Amino acid sequence: MEERVKLSILLDLYGELLTEKQKDVMDLYYNDDLSLAEISEIANTSRQAVHDIIKRCHKLLVEYEEKLKLMDTKFKIQQVKKCLLDNIDDLSIQGESNLEKLEKIKKYIIDNI
Amino acid sequence: MEERVKLSILLDLYGELLTEKQKDVMDLYYNDDLSLAEISEIANTSRQAVHDIIKRCHKLLVEYEEKLKLMDTKFKIQQVKKCLLDNIDDLSIQGESNLEKLEKIKKYIIDNI
C-alpha cells in the first residue's frame, strides 16, 4: 500500500490519540496534501516544527498500529464481509419469503459489518 | 457492567499501549484479583507505587476507550453476530446443498466475526 494512503488510514483510526494540533497538521499533510510551507503558514508555526510534528506522529501512528492492529483488523473484516456476501449469493434459494429475508440479511451485513 | 470486569476487558484491548510493568500490575490486580500487598511483593516495589500504577493505568485505559471505543465496537460486533445467526436460523431453507452451504456460512460467521 502507498505510504501516504496507509498514513491517511492510520490517522483516521488513531487520530484521537494525537493532540488537536498534531492531528490538524497530519490531516493537512496526508489528507489535504499541503506542503510543509503551506502548513506552517496555516498552523502559524515554523516549517521545522511542522516537519518535526509529522515525523514524530508518523512514528506514533505506526507504533499504534503495531500494538493494536486496527488497520489490519479493518481489512480482515472487509474480507469477511465480502466473503459472506459472496457465499449468500451462491445459495440457490427459492420462495419469496426466503428471498426477502436473505436480502434483509445482506443489507444488514452491508450496513453493520 | 461491573467495574472490575470492564477494566479487565479494557486491559485486554489496550494493554499493549501500557509498559510491561504497568500491564503486569494491572493483570495481577484485575485478572488475578491479588491485593496491593501481594502485588507489591511480586513486583518488588512499594504498596504505594502499585497503588499509583493502578490508579494511573485505570485512568489511561478509560481515556483510550473514550477515544477509540474498541470495547463499544466489540459489543456491537457481538450483537451483529448474534443477529446474523438468528436471522439465518429463521430462514426456511430446503435442499441438502443449500443447508450445507448455510451451515458453512454460520460456521464462518462464528469463526470470523
Automatic annotation (TrEMBL), chains A, B:
Signal peptide: none annotated. Keywords: DNA-binding. GO terms for molecular function: DNA binding. SUPFAM superfamilies: Sigma3 and sigma4 domains of RNA polymerase sigma factors (SSF88659). Gene3D superfamilies: Winged helix-like DNA-binding domain superfamily/Winged helix DNA-binding domain (1.10.10.10). InterPro entries: RNA_pol_sigma_r3/r4-like, UPF0122, UPF0122_fam_protein, WH-like_DNA-bd_sf. HAMAP family: UPF0122. Might take part in the signal recognition particle (SRP) pathway. This is inferred from the conservation of its genetic proximity to ftsY/ffh. May be a regulatory protein. Belongs to the UPF0122 family. This is UPF0122 protein HBE96_24100. It comes from Clostridium muellerianum.
